[in-house]
Design a protein that fits this description.
By secondary structure, the chain is of the alpha+beta class. 44% of the residues lie in helices and 17% in strands. Strands 1, 2, 3, 8, 9, 10 and 11 form a seven-stranded mixed sheet that branches. A two-stranded antiparallel sheet has the order 4-7. Strands 5-6 form a two-stranded antiparallel sheet. A hairpin with a 3-residue loop joins strand 10 and strand 11 (230-233). The longest helix has 37 residues, at 3-39.
Length: 300
């Protein structure tokens, strides 16, 4: 076999192995997603018998167990800067990475605020899947503006993927001339057996936000609506990638395209960025025309 043929054969095997890896991760995500939807069904705007039964079980479990305490939150300007300063070369090297796709939707009015496309995030501070997704959302938003005032927290220590490192968007700020950001951290980290999830309410969604959530989320967190044209319904990668890491370690790994964390988070961020760029008509040009965003755009 010629050297050219051997090279082509190795390349084909590499592509096949990468596709098989993505399929395995996708199957794991789907299983996790189904479990999360079953276990964390929410009551929004109406009583449904099956949902109430699930809620009753959740409340009973919370009442009869002694929940662990979440670690204290903190601010960390250095970690915020690290997320905001991920090199373009890193995003370009990762491309779509191993992240799940962003789903396109149609038939709804465009979601805007102050004349700009709106990115709506809905989640809960206790939620490990939200914990994972926030890193990608933050990394994507920082390419269009400045995200500030985040508190670094951990997901629930008693849930699956316990104490996943993350940040909270509650009372955060965001400035951008391209897009607006509206976070709704629906539930906190504080246990409360009187709520559907077993954690205290933190922010209540508006009727419009609840309607969007009901229509597209599948009943589980996290949920990201990008201008009512694209949605992320469920986490784009598994929180296990972040196990036992500090916030600084996650931010550092996001800057190294060879790490599994970068392939997960930066790949997800590239997909979210590509969706936002569809609504900003490719602006800013340095982001919209980048190789990483172009590669991710083929997956949405």
């Amino acid at each position: 076999m010629s050297k050219s043929a051997q090279k082509q054969a190795r390349s084909a095997r590499g592509r096949a192995a990468a596709q098989q890896a993505r399929e395995r991760v996708a199957a794991q995500r789907a299983a996790a997603r189904r479990a999360e939807v079953r276990r964390r069904a929410l009551v929004v705007g109406g009583a449904i018998t099956v949902v109430l039964a699930v809620v009753a079980v959740l409340i009973a479990v919370k009442v009869t167990s002694t929940p662990g305490r979440a670690a204290p939150s903190r601010t960390d300007a250095a970690v915020e800067r690290a997320i905001a300063g991920i090199p373009a070369a890193t995003f370009n090297a990762v491309g779509a990475g191993t992240a799940a796709r962003v789903k396109a939707i149609s038939g709804e009015p465009e979601l805007t605020l102050d004349g700009k496309p709106e990115v709506l995030f809905m989640g809960g501070e206790y939620c490990p899947y939200c914990a994972a997704e926030r890193w990608a959302v933050a990394a994507a938003l920082d390419r269009f503006g400045v995200l500030s005032g985040t508190r670094f927290i951990h997901s629930s220590p008693t849930d699956v993927y316990p104490s996943t490192p993350t940040m909270s968007f509650y009372k955060s700020g965001y400035t951008s001339k391209y897009v607006t950001f509206v976070p709704v951290e629906w539930y906190s980290e504080k246990p409360d057996s009187a709520t559907p999830t077993g954690y205290a309410y933190l922010q209540r969604p508006t009727a419009e936000q609840a309607a969007v959530f009901n229509r597209y989320s599948g009943g589980g967190f996290p949920f990201v609506d990008i201008g009512n044209r694209y949605v992320v319904s469920g986490v784009q990668y598994l929180p296990s990638a972040l196990a036992n890491m500090t916030w600084a370690q996650v931010a550092a790994a996001m800057r190294d395209p060879s790490t599994p964390v970068a392939r997960d988070i930066d790949g997800a961020a590239n997909m979210i960025t590509a969706a936002i760029c569809k609504l900003t008509h490719g602006q800013p040009a340095g982001v919209g025309n980048s190789a990483g965003v172009s590669a991710a755009a083929g997956s949405i």
